[in-house]
C-alpha cells in the first residue's frame, strides 16, 4: 500500500468508504496492497471481523481482489472513477512502452473522408431511433458472420465487445453466479466480472484455445456462463482451432444451463480461419467488435445469438441507453463498403503478423518458447514477474505484468507488438533473454509444464 495513505474508520462501512476514497483520489493505485486484516484492525482499534467485513464489501463491489499470501490488492480497473494521473504507469524516460495492448495508430484507416461523406449526405437531423440496428449495418454484418460460419438470423449492436459481454452476463446471471474464463485471460473482463458480483473460474489455455479438460472441470464446478476468445486471445494470442472447436462442441452439446459467449474482438486482424462454437448450447452469443481493425474510438460491436438471448440484450438496451448512435453505425457501414479500407486492414494484419511472428521466432532462436499465434500480443512466461519487469525496465523496455491477466496460471509478461517496430525485435528479444540462465527467464522451460499454458487435459 502507498505509505502516505492511512485507511480510517471504526465500522466496516467507514473503512470500505475510506479505501474507496483513497482509490478515487489516486492515493491507492491499481495493484497497491491493503494492510493485512489483523494489522489494520490493531491500527484502527477495531475487531478483525470488522476489517474482514469491509474487505468483503470491497471485493463484492469489484474494487479489490484477494490473492492468498499476496494479500488484498486494488484491482487493475476498479469500478470507480479515479483521477486520471492515478491510472497512468510511471513514465520511462527514453524507453519503449510495449505494454499497452492498443492497435498501432499508424495502421488504422483514416476516418476523415468517411465522416466528410456522411456529413454531406446524412440528411436532416433525426429523432430518437426506432430501430436499434440500421438495416444496412444488419445486412452487412449478417453477410460477414455467415461467411465465417456464424448464424446471424438474430443480431443487435452494442457499445463495444465488453459492453456486449456485460449486457449478456447481466441478462442471464445473478450476483454470486460463477463464470468460466480463460486463464490467463482478458484483464478487463476479469475486472468486469468482479464488478458485477460474479465469481470467476479459470480455464487453462493453450495455443488452440481453452482446454477441454479445463472446460470440463469448470462445468463440474457449476459455472453458469463460459466466455471464449475465438482468435487473438489476450494475452496469449491463442486461437480456437477446428479440432478444439469440435471437441468443445461435443462437450457443450445441449447444456441448457450454460450461456456460451464468444468474443471475436480482433475480427479481420486475426489471419486464421474462425472455428466458431455458436449454437453449441441453446443460449449463446457471438460478439465481434470493430475497434481493433478500425480504431478504438469506434465503440461498436455486432452481437449475434439465439432469439431469446439477443432479445434480452436489445430489450435491456431499449430501457437504458436506447441504441448505438446511428451516425456511428453509418460510419461503420461506410468503412465496411470501402475497398481501400479493406486493403489497409489487410496490410495492418500482415504487419502485426510479421512483428509477432518475428518476436516469437527471435525468442525461439534464443531458446525461449513464447506464445503468440494470432493478434498483437506475445506471452512470455517467467519465474518472477517483478524481477523480469525491473530487469526489462532497466534495459529500456516497459512490458505488462502477467498478474493482471492470471488467476492460477504461472507468472509471465505480456508484450504488445503494436508498439514494436520490426527493426527493434532483436534488441527486445535480447533484453527478454539476457538473464535466461539467471533470474529473468531461468528455468523457463519447466514453467510451461505446470502453468495455464500446459497442453489440453
Characterize the overall form. globular
- Mean pLDDT across residues: 89
Largest sheet: 8 strands, mixed
Which blocks of ≥5 consecutive residues have pLDDT under 50? 84-88, 442-457
Main attributes of the structure:
single chain, 457 residues, alpha/beta, 8-stranded mixed β-sheet, 3-stranded antiparallel β-sheet, 17 helices, 40% helix, 14% strand, globular
Structure description:
The chain is an alpha/beta fold and 457 residues long. 40% of the residues lie in helices and 14% in strands. The chain has 17 helices and 15 strands. It has helices at residues 12-25, 37-44, 48-60, 84-87, 112-121, 135-147, 161-172, 187-195, 212-220, 242-252, 291-294, 307-318, 326-337, 339-365, 385-394, 425-433, 444-447, and strands at 64-66, 72-74, 96-97, 155-158, 178-183, 199-206, 209-210, 225-229, 259-263, 283-289, 301-305, 377-381, 397-398, 400-401, 412-416. The protein has an eight-stranded mixed sheet, with helices on both faces. A three-stranded antiparallel sheet has the order 12-15-14, covered by helices on one side. The chain has a two-stranded antiparallel ribbon with strand order 1-2. β8, α10 and β9 form a beta-alpha-beta unit. α7 packs parallel to α8 (187-195). The two termini are 38 Å apart. The relative contact order is 0.13. Mean pLDDT is 89; it is low at 84-88 and 442-457.
